[in-house]
């Protein structure tokens, strides 16, 4: 069974891989911060909230802000108040640093209001109330807390959580929630629980995704038919393809055709020489060949190849239509590595020992050539240290042999800190009918085919040959687990530290995701299967826990983050291919550690905005319970009607949020907690990406003054509305005056990471010393690129 093998495919009715429901029970852990992301280990040790210095949701900067807030509050108390309440106040403030902050503040979903005080267990709340009732007005500006402050029963009921497992401080002693916190979670069978983020969709057998290593952080996705598409860092796609050689590429629409556009790589010095290399199938007369060509980028458009620049570097006859190889890599030595298949059919029947063991044939090999300085003279040269350069009859291009059909190889970037492992080349070699294998490619080595398949003998006569001297794979698995390996990458990215050093790969036929981790002391590789997280494991905005079955390829972006491509229908003409980013929901890198500023991209094509299609499955929305009306409160039916109308959605002039949420907003059962919303109004042309900022607080809409108004403030508004960027912080009522509304916020100061303007510093709700001619506005956008259409 091979990559794209026909006749052996199975597909669920939805086309989505979802069989893991039968394999494990859902993991209950769901650590989440107030920015709706996983917790992290701070780079700098915390000084105030030291209980979360090892793992939590605060970096040093946030820790210092909480300390400052603590001293501001405690300045209002005498010695007695300080002695009795300082510990309580510190504990409550520091729950923003808890790994479960989103649960404690009832903010697991971006569309739900965030509490001003964490959810308290009833016994703790009663104790706190008796000793330090006077601190509540300083801890919260929630008017309902002020209203019920002197009624212990009502106050503590208001501060309860619906999910009592997460209330403070009982959460600290809940072993089910605190055990193995911060580690990659696994089920009882050891299957690692990871999540995915959809990055691109609607692709026809996407089989390569590469970057140009030029600082732009674009990524380029190749389709089997011979098209390569450009994607910008915001995941928008250029309407015009980067490369289109569909007329030259040999492939077909039938499921399982292994011919086509198979590989793409940019020259390490692409930023300076504009060169890239492609690997594809062609038909020359009645012969089928694989062709490796060099192209240059257009001098007029950095997002398009100069199609007239093609130079054929190498062509190899293919005796059959399968086992075409297809990988191109540049090693750390700067040379181009080419991975060819054994020529096809079954059992490598070509010649006495097959192509793979024949060093005079280019098929079934890893080739290494030098394509530098080839503008004049030969198109490529042979590196002087190629292993068989002096062996009679051997092709000098051969670097390693005994290869069946290596499908997807990668170069290890090395440990980000120690560089351990740097330069190793990992490959998945597709087996015949028993085993699939993972190899590390070394110079001059024999990888065994057709004598061996995995660790076992295939051709018993060749296998017994004492001169075989083959290198064994680091891992092999039987066909009961999968029948066509897809090689992956060693994770060396920044965003998910737990994954560092983990080789992640898959199987095309079974759809199984797998991982290997090297034991540094024994050199052995430990295997773990990867399952999609169920329960609340992947309940983060934008994350999903399912994928299409047929895993075609893996990829790294310029920052080293890991992706894979799969499809629901393995045909070169079926637009069911999706690119997924691999995400560890248990731990992320500290904020700002992984920040980069992409080099601006000058675009001469229309942009197609990315719209995710996949959804999280297996997470039930919370039950909708009617809010309790307290007997001591008058029933305000008009206010409830206003609130419910507000919950139907933003004003028609407001952009709909583009961020996928993990579950429906909760209906709070605590009267007085109002929905926080924002809208943009006042643009003369009715555009929904700009306007006067109006905010909804405690049952009314109002405006925001432009005193201290900044791009950070604007960024909070734009992100809340679903836009990626704030292009302008508008002042002096640029979008008109909201004279019919009250001014609700003034002197707003945001850092840019808050969930809403209410989470920023401000003078207080309804407190201002400004007029409507100072109404603030914003202009939002989803692209910060120069667009020339």
From TrEMBL:
Protein's cellular compartments: Secreted
Recorded GO CC terms: extracellular region; membrane
Record's compositionally biased regions (Low complexity): 652-665
Start and end residues of each stretch annotated as Disordered: 647-677
Disulfide topology: 750-760
PANTHER family, alphabetized: HEDGEHOG-INTERACTING PROTEIN (PTHR19328), HHIP-LIKE PROTEIN 1 (PTHR19328:SF32)
Family: Belongs to the HHIP family.
Name of the molecule in the record: SRCR domain-containing protein
Origin species: Sphaeramia orbicularis
Organism placement in taxonomy: Eukaryota, Metazoa, Chordata, Craniata, Vertebrata
């Amino acid at each position: 069974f091979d990559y794209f093998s026909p006749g052996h495919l199975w597909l669920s009715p939805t086309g989505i891989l979802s069989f893991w429901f039968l394999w494990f029970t859902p993991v209950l852990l769901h650590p989440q911060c107030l920015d709706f992301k996983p917790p992290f280990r701070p780079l700098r040790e915390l000084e105030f909230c030291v209980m979360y210095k090892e793992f939590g949701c605060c970096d040093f900067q946030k820790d210092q802000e909480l300390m400052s807030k603590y001293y501001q509050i405690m300045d209002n108390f005498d010695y007695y108040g300080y002695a009795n309440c300082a510990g309580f106040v510190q504990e409550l403030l520091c729950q923003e640093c808890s790994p479960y902050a989103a649960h404690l503040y009832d903010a697991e979903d971006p569309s739900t209001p965030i509490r001003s005080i964490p959810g308290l267990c009833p016994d703790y709340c009663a104790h706190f109330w008796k000793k330090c009732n006077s601190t509540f007005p300083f801890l919260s500006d929630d008017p309902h807390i002020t209203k019920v402050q002197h009624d212990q029963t009502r106050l503590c009921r208001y501060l309860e959580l619906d999910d009592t497992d997460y209330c403070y401080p009982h959460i600290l002693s809940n072993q089910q929630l605190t055990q193995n916190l911060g580690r990659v979670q696994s089920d009882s069978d050891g299957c690692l629980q990871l999540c995915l983020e959809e990055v691109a969709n609607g692709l026809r057998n996407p089989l390569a995704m590469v970057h140009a290593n030029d600082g732009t952080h674009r990524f380029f996705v190749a389709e089997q038919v011979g098209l390569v598409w450009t994607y910008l860092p915001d995941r928008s796609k250029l309407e015009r393809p980067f490369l289109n050689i569909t007329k030259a590429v040999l492939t077909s629409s039938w499921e399982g055709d292994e011919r086509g556009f198979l590989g793409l790589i940019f020259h390490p010095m692409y930023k300076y020489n504009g060169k890239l290399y492609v690997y594809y199938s062609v038909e020359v007369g009645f012969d089928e060949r694989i062709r490796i060509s060099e192209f240059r980028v257009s001098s007029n458009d950095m997002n398009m190849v100069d199609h007239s620049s093609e130079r054929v570097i190498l062509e190899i006859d293919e005796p059959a239509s399968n086992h075409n190889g297809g990988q191109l890599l540049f090693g750390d030595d700067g040379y181009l590595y080419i991975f060819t298949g054994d020529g096809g059919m079954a059992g490598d029947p070509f010649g006495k020992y097959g192509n793979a063991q024949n060093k005079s044939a280019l098929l079934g090999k890893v080739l290494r050539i030098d394509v530098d300085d080839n503008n004049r003279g030969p198109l490529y040269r042979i590196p002087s240290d190629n292993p068989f350069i002096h062996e009679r009859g051997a092709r000098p291009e051969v670097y390693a042999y005994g290869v069946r059909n290596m499908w997807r190889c990668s170069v290890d970037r090395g440990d980000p800190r120690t560089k351990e492992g740097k330069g190793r080349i990992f490959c998945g070699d597709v087996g015949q009918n028993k085993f699939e294998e993972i190899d590390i490619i070394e110079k001059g080595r024999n990888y065994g085919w057709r004598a061996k398949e995995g660790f076992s003998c295939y051709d018993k006569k060749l296998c017994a040959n004492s001169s075989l001297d083959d290198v064994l794979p680091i891992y092999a698995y039987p066909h009961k687990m999968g029948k066509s390996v897809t090689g992956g990458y060693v994770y060396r990215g920044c965003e998910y530290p737990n994954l560092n050093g983990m080789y992640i790969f898959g199987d095309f036929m079974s759809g199984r995701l797998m991982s290997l981790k090297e034991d540094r002391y024994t050199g052995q590789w430990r295997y773990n299967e990867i399952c999609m997280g169920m329960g609340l494991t992947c309940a983060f905005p934008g994350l999903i826990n399912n994928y299409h079955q047929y895993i075609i390829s893996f990829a790294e972006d310029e920052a080293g983050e890991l992706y894979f491509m799969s499809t629901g229908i393995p045909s070169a003409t079926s637009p069911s291919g999706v690119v997924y980013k691999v995400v560890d929901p248990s731990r992320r890198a500290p904020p700002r550690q992984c920040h980069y500023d992409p080099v601006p991209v000058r675009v001469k094509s229309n942009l197609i905005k990315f719209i995710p299609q996949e959804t999280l499955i297996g997470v039930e929305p919370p039950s909708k319970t009617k809010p309790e009306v307290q007997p001591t409160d008058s029933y305000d039916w008009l206010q409830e009607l206003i609130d419910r109308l507000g919950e139907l959605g933003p004003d028609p002039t407001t952009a709909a949020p583009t961020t996928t949420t993990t579950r429906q907003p909760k209906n709070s059962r605590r009267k007085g907690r109002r929905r926080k919303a924002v809208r943009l109004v006042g643009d003369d042309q009715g555009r929904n990406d700009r306007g006067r900022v109006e905010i909804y607080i405690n049952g009314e809409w109002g405006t925001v003054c432009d005193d201290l108004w900044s791009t950070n403030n604007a960024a909070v508004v734009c992100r809340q509305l679903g836009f990626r960027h704030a292009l302008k912080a508008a002042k002096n009522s640029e979008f008109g005056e909201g004279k019919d509304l009250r001014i609700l916020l003034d002197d707003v100061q945001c850092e840019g990471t808050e969930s809403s303007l209410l989470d920023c510093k401000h003078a207080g709700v309804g407190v201002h010393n400004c007029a409507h001619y100072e109404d603030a506005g914003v202009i939002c956008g989803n692209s910060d690129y120069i667009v020339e259409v």
